[in-house]
Design goal:
Layout lengths: L10 H5 L2 E9 L3 H12 L4 E4 L8 H4 L20 H6 L9 H14 L6 E2 L4 E7 L4 E6 L4 E9 L21 E4 L14 E5 L3 H13 L2 E6 L5 E3 L7 H9 L1 H10 L18 H14 L2 H6 L9 H18 L3 H7 L12 E3 L2 H4 L5 E5 L5 E4 L3 E4 L3 E3 L2 E4 L8 H5 L3 E2 L6 H4 L18 E3 L12 H22 L3 E4 L1 H15 L30 H13 L5 E4 L5 E3 L9 H13 L8 H14 L9 E9 L2 E9 L8 E5 L13 H11 L2 E6 L10 H15 L11 E6 L1 H15 L5 E7 L10 H5 L8 H11 L23 E8 L3 H13 L4 E10 L13 H15 L17
Parallel strand pairs: 1-2, 1-6, 2-3, 4-17, 6-18, 7-16, 8-9, 8-16, 9-12, 10-11, 24-25, 24-26, 26-27, 27-28, 28-29
Antiparallel strand pairs: 4-5, 5-6, 13-14, 14-15, 19-20, 20-21, 22-23, 23-25
Helix pairs in contact: 2-16, 7-8, 11-12, 16-18, 21-27, 22-23
The structure holds flavin-adenine dinucleotide.
Length: about 900
């Protein structure tokens, strides 16, 4: 039953009484409007409080010349009502601000929303009352509001950033802020105008102002990447796609990474020729679509600095080709952030504007503004007298409007600003521990500004209103995330932020544009579709991470973390689960080998190295194939003898090709991957003996192979890690070769299955317990399993070469790897360990699929360099990924 006692718009609301509703919503933009509609349909009484004079939010305030959306309008629309979709026709590919505002007005009228919106009403404070279990919202106009639930639809880009320049108040001319543009017309004709700021709003408004003004001076601190919008009617191909299956198109958008239906690009940059890359880029440039250019060039463009630099170079080339004055062109070329790490812009005549005789660019990096004077702007090199100053200086993004309501007081009298003193912390970007019944629409920690906001807003509103309805049905009155769930989400956010390049730029995404604001990537970088899946999973798992309470002590709390896997590991495992593959052990040895070969073929090819050579080396009567990876640098390099994974049954000298290439590049060492013989054709101890024979032969032929003579290093993954460990023991016992260090990646060290990780991670993480049983049965008889050549943990561990042991949290082999590292250390062997949180058995060898594996490989490379006594500077791979594990 509704709790409304005083209807909005009545005297109680207007005169300073108390308005009681089920739900209070702050903000009447895209989010607040849809929220009100959904709440009403779900039978809740609700009021929307909006400081502006009408609906529209962003599109009410940002009326500056040239303002448009930069997600194609057919995508940047509500999708909740199919009839609404056909009732409104957009006139352009990127609608102008007036058209979007008309659209939001049309929506408000269609669903009769205005009658529950109090315009011109700013919420100034909000307080949770523990006794009544309600929020009290104080406003600057009319009644306070008491509501059980408080939804902040206050916008990510709605709190303009104040100018950080002295003297603004002294200026005698006109001052405008793009984010608070007046409703009356601003006349530029015959005026000298300054625009400060070249983000989206600057880039959109500058060309329009330049056409009207007598003279325009643009003050730029940080150049931004921009590409032509090519505005006009909605592109025929996109419109046709939408119209052919509207519901399907919308579903694809919801499942996509950015909220616009584009496929996942699979080709990596180094697989494409220069000409192919250029052709793709030119097509993207001609398309005039940010999501397209950000996602459709090559798979590594958003996650790898080298892949990204290729796009950035081409974009800079375009700027130089348009802007005639070389110094101005150079100043307009961004050089301090990867493309996409800062919000790129769509432009219409922006670069060409700088060829106009009435436009000058002032590069604030070379001549900072020192003051604003009565007549204009002073830099340390000149005075620019102007009649109008336009501040296009952006927003205190994501948290600005939330923190502007101060205090928001939660449980125990704690204020949200204090709780967020070191940066925002949320669960799912939707809720905050200690603040019951408070919901943030597109809050920090959700995809929000990294997505098509229309899609993200609808998802959040639906999730919140569905939860409120479910709570009501179950008889609960409060909902609040637990500290555990919130801390887990923060960890997941940090993990996600290691996948993309956003963390490498100083931007409003990271809070860097506001002096004193805590730094950190605020939006969720893991993608719209995966995020939606996680929110749904929270519900499916009994509101995991939430405490629900109700009358008479009713309580439900299913505590826990929703994502413990690394984000890319989660995606890969979900993808594998969707494939519903038969167990590998049911395929037979040859079937399993065929499957692995097919599976590997779907993974991106390894990166280029100096040289790849195939050869063969003797092992007893047989010859073993090997593949040698040589760095591109000249000279003799240390040699790493590498043993591939595959449970002694699968794989070959080529099957870990991407890993060997990556490590060859990172270490600047020769990697020689050995094709040891496999079970069941060659059972124990063939693989162990082959490993030893190969290491010995390679050490003896180091010079012929182009390697440094002297100690070799050994490395291996999984069963290959087992062979590497065993090789070290055999080399010690048999008088050589000399081994300088061993890298053991998720090694088998013990044939016991007693280790808890065998039970904890028995299924669900690709390498299963049952597959390990099968591998062991294929390779060796039960009677052999105590032999140190299969269970090196049971061997003599004294006097072995230094080791670096990598284990993964979600791997059946985790505990035996840790046990081996600890046992080595106990026997005086120098040991480094990486216990990789959130990773699975294949995390580090799925190079360029599991991006979060990069930091682990960096650590492995560092260990190998230390073993070989090579200084770090000699490695050749870029070191752009900080440690994630
Ligand atoms: C110029 C510009 C262009 C953009 N283009 C795109 C685009 O192409 N695609 C895209 O996806 N996104 C775009 N965005 C982001 C845009 O903000 C969102 O798409 C969307 O409009 C946000 O809707 P919202 O309802 O969440 O917030 P807003 O539209 O910002 O609405 C929030 C409302 O809350 C009100 N409010 C805030 N605090 C209070 C308070 N204390 N009391 C009362 N009222 C309050 C504000 O007045 C405002 O009206 C753009 C943003 C800008 C600034």
């Amino acid at each position: 039953m509704s709790e409304t006692m005083v209807a909005p718009g009545t005297s109680g609301a207007a005169s300073g009484g108390l308005q009681q509703v089920d739900v209070a919503v702050v903000g009447a933009g895209f989010a607040g409007l849809y929220c009100l509609h959904r709440l009403r349909k779900a039978g809740f009484s609700a009021v929307v409080l909006e400081s502006g004079g009408d609906v529209g939010g962003t599109w009410y305030w940002n009326r500056y010349p040239g303002a448009r959306c930069d997600i194609q309008t057919i995508d940047y629309s509500y999708t909740f009502d199919p009839e609404l979709e056909t009732a409104w026709q957009w006139s352009e590919k990127y609608a102008t601000q007036p058209e979007i505002l008309r659209y939001l007005g049309f929506v408000a009228d269609r669903y009769d929303l205005r009658r529950d919106i109090r315009f011109g009403t700013k919420v100034t404070q909000a307080t949770w009352d523990e006794t009544s279990g309600r929020w009290l919202l104080t406003t600057d106009n009319g009644a306070s509001v008491s509501a059980r639930d408080y939804i902040m639809a206050t916008g990510c880009l709605s709190q303009p950033k104040p100018p950080e320049i002295d003297g603004v108040q002294d200026f005698k001319g006109e001052i405008y802020f793009t984010g608070r543009w007046p409703h009356n017309e601003v006349t530029f004709a015959g005026k000298r105008v300054a625009v400060i700021g070249t983000g989206s709003s600057g880039i959109q408004s500058i060309p329009v102002i330049a056409e009207q003004a007598d003279y325009l001076t643009v003050f730029q601190r940080t150049p931004n990447f921009a590409m032509p919008a090519h505005n006009g009617p909605a592109p025929a191909d996109r419109a046709a796609l939408l119209n052919s299956d509207r519901a399907g198109y919308r579903e694809q958008a919801r499942a996509s990474m950015a909220g616009v239906p584009y496929p996942q690009q699979m080709d990596v940059s180094w697989q494409l020729t220069d000409a192919e890359r250029r052709a793709r880029f030119e097509k993207a440039w001609a398309t005039g679509d940010l999501v397209y250019i950000l996602s459709q060039l090559w798979a590594d463009q958003a996650v790898d600095a080298e892949g990204n630099a290729l796009v950035a170079d081409l974009l800079r080339e375009k700027v130089r080709s348009i802007v005639k004055d070389p110094e101005t062109a150079e100043a307009l070329c961004p050089d301090d952030h990867p493309f996409g790490a800062k919000r790129p812009c769509l432009e219409t005549n922006y670069y060409a504007t700088f060829n106009r005789p009435n436009v000058t660019l002032v590069n604030l990096r070379k001549e900072p503004i020192t003051a604003i004077t009565a007549t204009g702007i002073k830099t340390d090199k000149r005075n620019v007298d102007v009649d109008i100053i336009v501040f296009a200086t952006g927003f205190d993004a994501m948290t600005g409007a939330i923190r502007a309501i101060h205090p928001i007081t939660g449980r125990g009298g704690r204020s949200l600003s204090d709780v967020w003193a070191d940066g925002p912390e949320t669960y799912l970007g939707l809720t905050v521990a200690g603040f019951p019944n408070l919901f943030l629409i597109t809050g920090p920690g959700s995809p929000s500004v990294l997505s098509n906001m229309a899609v993200s807003i609808e998802q959040h509103v639906d999730w919140v209103v569905d939860r409120l309805a479910a709570l009501r049905s179950a008889g609960f009155t409060t909902i609040e995330p637990t500290e555990t769930a919130q801390a887990g989400w923060q960890r997941h956010l940090a993990d996600c932020s290691m996948v993309t390049l956003h963390r490498l730029a100083n931007t409003w995404y990271t809070g860097a544009n506001v002096p004193g604001k805590p730094r950190g990537v605020m939006p969720y970088t893991g993608g719209v579709g995966p995020y939606r899946g996680i929110c749904n999973e929270v519900v499916d798992r009994g509101m995991l991470g939430f405490r629900l309470t109700g009358p008479r002590g009713a309580e439900q709390c299913n505590d826990g973390e929703i994502v413990r896997l690394q984000p890319d590991v989660r995606l890969v495992l979900n993808w594998l689960a969707e494939m519903n593959l038969p167990p590998i052990e049911s395929m037979g040895a040859q079937g399993a080998r065929d499957f692995v070969a097919q599976f590997n073929a779907t993974r991106p090819a390894g990166r280029p190295v100096g040289e790849v050579l195939d050869g063969a080396l003797p092992a007893g009567e047989d010859m073993l194939k090997y593949r040698l990876y040589r760095p591109a640098t000249p000279g003799l390099h240390p040699i790493v003898v590498y043993f591939h994974g595959g449970g002694w049954v699968l794989g070959d000298e080529q099957s870990d090709d991407p890993f060997c290439r990556d490590m060859c590049r990172r270490t600047n060492m020769i990697f020689i991957s050995v094709g040891y013989r496999h079970a069941p054709e060659h059972r124990f101890p063939t693989a162990a003996e082959d490993g030893y024979a190969a290491a010995k032969w390679i050490a003896e032929h180091a010079l012929e192979l182009g390697g440094q003579p002297g100690p070799i290093l050994v490395a291996g993954w999984s069963a290959g890690g087992n062979i590497a460990a065993v090789t070290c023991q055999l080399a010690r016992d048999r008088g050589g070769p000399e081994i300088g260090g061993q890298l053991l990646l998720n090694p088998v060290t013990d044939c016991s299955t007693e280790h808890p990780s065998y039970t904890e991670n028995a299924t669900g993480y690709f390498l299963t317990r049952s597959l390990m049983y099968w591998f062991k049965d294929m390779y060796c008889a039960p009677a052999d399993r105590g032999d140190p050549r299969i269970s090196p943990l049971r061997g003599n561990l004294k006097g072995l070469p230094p080791a670096f042991v990598v284990t993964s949290e979600f791997d059946p082999l985790r505990d035996e790897g840790i046990a081996y590292a600890e046992a080595l250390a106990a026997h005086g062997v120098p040991v480094g360990q990486l216990k990789a949180r959130g990773h699975f058995h294949s995390s580090f060898t799925m190079v360029d699929v599991i991006i979060t594996g990069v930091s682990g490989r960096e650590q492995m490379a560092e260990a190998l360099r230390m073993f070989a006594k090579v200084p770090e500077a000699e490695s050749t791979a870029p070191q752009v990924h900080a440690a994630a594990s």
